[in-house]
Amino acid sequence: MADTLDGADRRVLRRQMLADDVYEAIKTMLMDHVIRPGARISIDGLAREFQVSSTPVREALARLESEGLAVKEPLKGYRATTLLTLAEFDDLYRFRLLLEPWAARRAAELITDEGRDRLYAELATAVEPTSVDYAGYKSLTVHDNRFHTLIAELSGSAQVRQAFERTHCHLHIFRLHYDRDTGPEVLTEHRALVEAVTSGTPAAAEAAMTTHLHNSMQSRLRRIFE
């Protein structure tokens, strides 16, 4: 078997890399409100700005639609989704408080050596934000999503994991507001969660997740809606 890619494979790889770059660029514009919440998104305008065809832009917008950051309207094209309202924010955290403390408890009950290794490995990827924009917060946003998804997975319930993944809550919450002060707090609470889950103490894991979500909700409520 050849060690190098043939011409067709290279073209596919370049196309995928281009599509990923366009996706990340538009996502950053949405997260940083360069494209304002609720604003129309011009496919042709973005294609000209990025000096690409409309195809990778359309592909990127389809991905962003699946994450709830863009919405496609019949005969009108795409627009950026609006920000969460206070009621939607409250509903999202109520949902998480029903789902995730249970998942943490079950993860602690079912924890294995492999599960411990995966949690420690994920925790090792976490870095504090470097600036108050998406570039600075991207790593923490990605870690936050992977971390909570992993705990849902370790609960042993595919339905719980899928329910959490469908909310894309990490994107919508971080899109509301960036604050470097929240980074150390989030990571400290993640470490406490890992300690509770990996030690196999279900009550402590459930309590740690509940505290983490309550702190996140109250901290963000003060910064965003007051």
Descriptive tags:
mainly alpha; Arc Repressor Mutant, subunit A; 10 helices; 4% strand
The CATH class designation of the largest domain is Mainly Alpha
Tell me the total number of β-strands: 3
Major sheet: size, sense and barrel closure? 3 strands, antiparallel
Residue stretches low in confidence (pLDDT < 50, at least 5 long) are none
Radius of gyration: 20 Å
- Judging from the principal axes of the Cα atoms, what is the shape? globular
Number of helices: 10
Write a compact overview of the structure shown.
With 226 residues, the chain is mostly helical. Helix content is 72%, strand content 4%. It has 2 domains: 74 residues, Winged helix-like DNA-binding domain superfamily/Winged helix DNA-binding domain (Arc Repressor Mutant, subunit A), CATH 1.10.10; 139 residues, GntR ligand-binding domain-like (Four Helix Bundle (Hemerythrin (Met), subunit A), Up-down Bundle).
